[in-house]
Every structure is written in structure tokens, then in C-alpha cells.
Specification:
single chain, alpha+beta, Glutaredoxin, 2 domains, five-stranded mixed β-sheet, four-stranded antiparallel β-sheet, 11 helices
């Protein structure tokens, strides 16, 4: 019996004991390329014990004798060079200003790169007034109350020079478990992305109006799967320009400060 499900769950946690061990170790030593034999042994072990694990790369970690196995989701696990010991979770580095989560920094990079690879034409974009000074990317759901609350402040963000780009993330999923068909929210989001005026339709849907059914080729499913890959578990999920993800509603003033800096946000206040 494979332990994949428990491993995936544990991969987002870092045991306090591991933190203590890591903080007590000597200064980290980073190999340039790593030992090919060790990396092959790690890949073989994981291929046998975790055949469904999507491995992106295996590389030396910041600690001698410990390798970082980066998954396609951006999460990572750590495996000893002899492929016998495995640590699920993030690696933290102790710096002068406190502990730094190296795993989250890596996930930010993955989110930034994967979102940057998307075509804005597949998103619903509310462009900034005048010059675009910053960009906020939001995984959204047309029925989510806090998505609707955030949407009510999009015009204010636009006035401050912030473009808001929406990606589809029907939080009820794609398939209705009872009927086996598409979920109601998924159907609404397909219709929204199919509309001739997608911005007007999205605003209307977020105000609770009926969304006329429509079918066309959309990126809704792909955007939903991307969201799951990069750690979205609910909506709205706000992704900053550096890949940092903030779950839930955040007021426009706070978003402007985070995206523009306090001084520029104050200057941009309508």
C-alpha cells in the first residue's frame, strides 16, 4: 500500500523537530551539481514507492548530504543521499531578520513563471486607467461572496493604475458528484468566458444575475487545474507580481500598498 496521500498532506508541513535539527546544523554547504549516482538512486526509490509522484527535478539542497526533490506543483521533499531517509515539508533558513521559508519562495517562483506563460487573451482583464503600474492576478469564482466583494473594488484598483486579471477557479470543482455532469458554477464560468463581452458578463454574474448558458472552447478547465497545481484551495486567491499568493479578500487600500508600496499607493489614491 502506497503512502502517497499522507506524503502529499505532510509535504506542506514542517515538523518542529525538523526545524530544530536544521537550525542546529552547521552552515549549509551547496554542491554545484550533485552526485549523479545519488540522484539516480533517489529517483529510482521514489519511482518504486511513489510511482504517481510528478518529479520536476532533483538537486542538492542547502544542506550537505540532503537532496531536494521538486515536484511539478512547486512543493518539495528532501531525501538523504543514500535514498533511505525522507523529510516532507519546507526547508527554513535562519537569517538575521528571522526564519525564511525557502520552500514558499520557490513556490512563488513557480507561480510567477506559470502565470507569466499564460496568454492574457484567455483571462478576463480589467485594465488599469492610464499607465499600468501593477498587475494583480486573481483566481475567482462567480458565486463566491468574497470574490464579489473584491470585484466591487476593481474600479478603485484600476483608478490607481492596477490591472486586475481574472483566472477561472470554480470552487465547487468541475464535476457534480451526484449527477456526474458539470457543476453549476463551472457551467456559469464557461458561459462567462464564452460571452462576447466577458467583462460585462462577469460583473453581471458576480451581481447574481442569470448567466445564459453557452458553450465554446475556453481555458476554464486549464485555469482551474493550474490553480490546483499552484496551491489554490479557495477563492478569491490573489497572486502578486512576484508570485506570492494571498488567500481571501483583501481591501483595495491594502492591495494597493502591497503592489505599489505605501508611498506610491498614497499618491495614487483617487
Amino acid at each position: 500500500m502506497r503512502a502517497r496521500s499522507s506524503l502529499d498532506f505532510a509535504a506542506s508541513l514542517l515538523c518542529p523537530l525538523v526545524v530544530a535539527v536544521l537550525l542546529g546544523m552547521a552552515a549549509p554547504v551547496l554542491a554545484d551539481e550533485g552526485d549523479p549516482a545519488a540522484m539516480a538512486a533517489i529517483r529510482s526509490m521514489l519511482g518504486t514507492t511513489q510511482p504517481d509522484m510528478a518529479i520536476h527535478e532533483i538537486k542538492p539542497s542547502a544542506i550537505a548530504g540532503l537532496y531536494e526533490v521538486v515536484l511539478s506543483s512547486g512543493h518539495a521533499i528532501y531525501v538523504s543521499s543514500d535514498a533511505k531517509f525522507l523529510i516532507p515539508g519546507d526547508l527554513y533558513e535562519s537569517r538575521a531578520d528571522g526564519l525564511v521559508n525557502l520552500g514558499e519562495a520557490r513556490r512563488n517562483d513557480v507561480r510567477r513563471e506559470r502565470i507569466a506563460a499564460l496568454d492574457e487573451r484567455d483571462m478576463i482583464v480589467y485594465e488599469a486607467d492610464g499607465e499600468r503600474r501593477a498587475t494583480l492576478t486573481v483566481f475567482t469564482d462567480v458565486d463566491c461572496p468574497y470574490c464579489r466583494k473584491l470585484h466591487g473594488e476593481v474600479e478603485e484598483l484600476n483608478r490607481r493604475g492596477i490591472a486586475v486579471r481574472y483566472l477561472a477557479f470554480p470552487r465547487t470543482g468541475l464535476v457534480d458528484r451526484q449527477t456526474g455532469g458539470k457543476t453549476e458554477t463551472y457551467v456559469k464560468m464557461i458561459a462567462t468566458w464564452c460571452a462576447d463581452d466577458r467583462k460585462a458578463m462577469l460583473t453581471s454574474a458576480k451581481r447574481g444575475a442569470d448567466v445564459p448558458a453557452a458553450e465554446c472552447d475556453t481555458q476554464v478547465e486549464e485555469q482551474f487545474e493550474l490553480g490546483r497545481d499552484v496551491g489554490v484551495t479557495g477563492t478569491p486567491a490573489l497572486v502578486m507580481e512576484d508570485g506570492t499568493m494571498v488567500p481571501g479578500y483583501v481591501p483595495a487600500d491594502a492591495l494597493a500598498s502591497a503592489l505599489l508600496g505605501d508611498a506610491q499607493a498614497s499618491a495614487a489614491t483617487p
